[in-house]
Write a structure and sequence with these properties.
The complex is a heterodimer of chains A (175) and B (173). Chain A has four helices and seven strands, in the order H-E-E-E-E-E-H-E-H-H-E. With 175 residues, chain A is an alpha+beta fold. Chain A has one domain: Hypothetical protein apc22750. Chain B (Translation Initiation Factor IF3). The longest helix of chain B is centred in the middle third of the chain and has 13 residues. In chain B, strands 2-4-5-3 form a four-stranded mixed beta sheet, with helices on one face. Chain B is of the alpha+beta class. Classes of the chains: A alpha+beta (175), B alpha+beta (173).
């Protein structure tokens, strides 16, 4: 019985050791116009254009948010910016986007997650100690410990993303 | 040891509960880690080949010239053209400023290891630890700021950049 409890506690620690936070893949696989993260971009003739070769039409800022399970083995959601970036270029009648900046940060609602997970951690540690002892309360404690593990592993964590950039229009070159 | 008595009668869990509540109330302190790429070549977010192909209506072979270009470079260049690479941003050791450094190094330094005309298929992996704002609160108390602005800043949000270096070969009409 003691061996089983020790194994359970060991598995718990190992499982939680793998535990991380929210993870997302950010991409835009089907863009209609070139979107560069630097200040350089190609024109249709493959010339590299720098800041003096295009007009900055408009700057834009977009915000996204998402939730994912904070566990490495769970699938990581993909955030596809394609449509919104295409819309920005179309609305401004631009030829592309330069200086794309992406920033990621916490969702303020993570404070609720933080609270629930913090309490779950204490229930897990305290409950595991009881399970490892000769206490008669094991049957009562086991579901609580199991519940705290599930909570810690599968309670979603939020993230917020901001995408900034500048829509540009290529200058016509004199021949 | 009775679990119910442990949680109700002993005062052990009360301060811990209050601690959890206080830490959770720090949600208003949220740091942000930005990925700024100060490279001297184009770095395309998304599928550059498809993008430029649709942008240059008169030259549909353009995509092929990009893909096939690796076959026309020297052996040394071929080794690195098209190679995937990963940069880690954020965390406690590497921050935004290092990205700039790495990007410049990737293009210009280290004996021209990467000889390319830019980067395509850039993707970002964002990693947000659930305890990050507690960490950020601590960092803001110590350093007095909540946004990463350069090397040495402390933040827990991590951005991972992945891209593919390409080499353009202009199709001569």
């Amino acid at each position: 019985m003691r061996f089983r409890s020790a194994t359970f506690a060991l598995l718990t620690v190992m499982t939680l050791g793998c535990y991380t936070g929210a993870e997302f893949t950010l991409g835009a696989p089907s863009l209609e116009k070139p979107v560069s993260m630097s200040q350089f971009v190609h024109d249709p003739e493959l010339n590299v254009l720098g800041p003096g070769d295009y007009d900055e039409v408009n700057g834009f800022v977009m915000s996204f948010s998402g939730w994912s399970f904070g566990w490495p083995l769970s699938p990581h959601p993909e955030k596809d910016f394609t449509e919104r970036l295409n819309d920005v270029v179309r609305q401004n009648d631009g030829d592309g986007i330069v200086n794309l900046r992406i920033s990621a940060g916490n969702n303020p609602l993570n404070s609720v997650t933080m609270f629930i997970k913090g309490v779950s951690w204490f229930v897990l540690v305290g409950g595991s100690l009881v399970l490892l002892s000769y206490s008669p309360d094991k049957a009562e404690i086991a579901p609580l410990v199991a519940g705290s593990i599930v909570t810690i592993l599968f309670l979603p964590t939020g993230a917020e993303f901001t995408v900034k950039g500048t829509v540009v229009r290529f200058r016509k070159k004199d021949k | 040891m009775n679990f119910r008595r442990l949680t109700t009668e002993r005062p052990t869990f009360l301060p811990l509960f209050v601690f959890c509540l206080m830490v959770s109330l720090t949600g208003c302190v949220t740091s942000r880690n930005s990925l700024v790429i100060d490279a001297s070549r184009p770095v395309y977010f998304g599928n550059m080949a498809k993008t430029l192909s649709s942008n240059s209506a008169g030259s549909p072979e353009f995509v092929e010239s990009i893909v096939a270009s690796s076959a026309h470079v020297s052996e040394k260049e071929r080794t690195y053209t098209g190679e995937h690479f990963t940069l880690y941003v954020g965390g406690t050791e590497v921050t935004r400023g290092n990205v700039v450094y790495h990007m410049e190094r990737a293009f210009q330094g280290e004996a021209d290891r990467f000889i390319g005309d830019g980067i395509v298929n850039a993707k970002i992996e964002a990693y947000i630890p659930w305890y990050s704002f507690a960490w950020d609160l601590l960092a803001s108390m110590i350093f007095g700021k909540t946004e990463s602005s350069g090397p040495g800043d402390v933040t827990q949000e991590t951005l991972e950049f992945e891209g593919k270096i390409y080499r353009l070969t202009k199709t001569t009409p």
